Amino acid sequence: MSFSLCKSQRDNDCELPSEGLASVAGGIVALGKFDALHIGHRELAIQASKVGAPSLLSFVGMAEILGWEPRAPIVAKCDRSRVLSSWAPYCGNLVPEEVQIEFSCVRHFTPRQFVEKLSKELGVIGVVAGENYRFGYKAAGDASELVRLCEEHGMRAYIISSVMDNNQDYRSMNSNDLKDRGQVSSTRVRQALAVGDMKYVSELLGRHHRLILMLKDKEERSKTSGGWRVSAPKSSLLNLPPKDGFYENCSLLLGNKNPVTCRVFMDTMHIHLETDEADPLDFETQQELHLLGIEFGDSRPDRD
Question: Secretion signal: which residues (predicted)?
Answer without folding.
Answer: none
